[in-house]
Design goal:
With 301 residues, the protein is an all-alpha fold. It has one domain. It is built from 15 helices and no strands. The protein is globular. 50% of the residues are buried.
Length: 301
């Protein structure tokens, strides 16, 4: 009896660690985009195709080549959501302020938590709800107390909001598809479909995909590889941790983005933002420490 229980705890812990690291790495994207001369859609386009090329090469050199056309098609729903949401968010990061765009990401735990209950039948206890609400309030304090650079255009805010809602579909479709498709093949398919979706978006907006400097070339590879590994870790965590916790861990993003905006973009960090970051990290720590019982996380047949 002890062996399986300890194994379950290890899987749960590994899932949360991968989830946290994944969000930390993806939080780098909007800061790099805001500091680049390239349009956000162009950055998203290169991000998909460069990371797809890396994953495809890994799959090809492995002995078990499992990237079949059927599995490629299975990744389409998640990939289409991934490409659409990423393109919209990167576009928004160039129109509105980095803090406004970050604020919108706080909305993601809401549709994901709802989906975890109604689609995957994950039971949510009162402690999780209270701690999550406090964490959301902490994240709101981070953004509301920050200085805002950029135009702050409402169109950018709306683009970010739509992108976040579509992003919820990426996680929902991903959780289902990963039940039958191996991780490497799924992520490769997601990035390929994401790249295909971004092609008409780039053409429609007439965004140039040509880097104007060596610095932008470096930023393109940074956006492709660092957050790409983050998404790989997030998909790895799908089978290890419940979706409702993965949803709330999204609140790490405003913490990391604010710190990076201070470091890279020279934006100020107020005392209230520091308090908000502390609240988010403490609440997420509480949620991750108390492992839900099997009854709370099991799926209802």
């Amino acid at each position: 009896m002890k062996g399986p229980k300890n194994s379950d705890k290890d899987l749960y812990r590994n899932g949360l660690i991968a989830c946290a690291l994944g969000y930390m790495l993806t939080a780098i994207s909007p800061v790099i985009v805001a500091d680049s001369n390239l349009h956000g859609l162009a950055m998203a386009f290169w991000r998909c195709w460069i990371f797809f090329a890396v994953l495809a090469l890994i799959i090809l050199i492995r002995k078990d080549k499992n990237l079949t056309f059927k599995r490629f098609l299975s990744a389409a729903p998640a990939g289409i959501c991934f490409g659409s949401s990423m393109g919209l968010f990167f576009w928004a990061a160039k129109i509105t302020s980095i803090l406004n765009a970050t604020l919108i990401t706080i909305l993601l735990p809401i549709p994901l938590t709802i989906a975890s209950f109604f689609i995957f039948r994950e039971r949510i206890n009162l402690r999780h709800i209270i701690v999550s609400i406090i964490a959301v309030c902490g994240a709101m304090l981070i953004v509301a107390s920050g200085s805002s650079s950029g135009t702050g255009d409402i169109k950018g805010d709306l683009l970010a909001a739509v992108g976040v809602l579509i992003s919820a579909g990426y996680f929902v479709f991903g959780k289902r598809t990963l039940l039958t498709v191996p991780l490497f093949e799924f992520v490769a398919g997601v990035f390929a479909w994401g790249g295909l979706v971004l092609i008409p978006m780039v053409i429609a907006t007439q965004a140039s995909i040509i880097a104007q400097s060596n610095a932008d070339v470096g930023r393109i590879f940074m956006v492709a590889l660092i957050p790409g590994v983050g998404h790989f870790l997030l998909n790895y965590s799908q089978g290890k941790a419940p979706l409702n916790l993965i949803a709330v861990f999204q609140l790490i993003v405003p913490v990391v983005s604010t710190l990076l905006a201070y470091w890279i973009l020279s934006q100020t960090v107020s005392v209230f933002q520091g308090v908000g970051m502390a609240i988010v990290l403490i609440m997420l720590g509480i949620n991750s420490y108390f492992k839900p019982s099997d009854e709370e996380t099991s799926q209802v047949e």
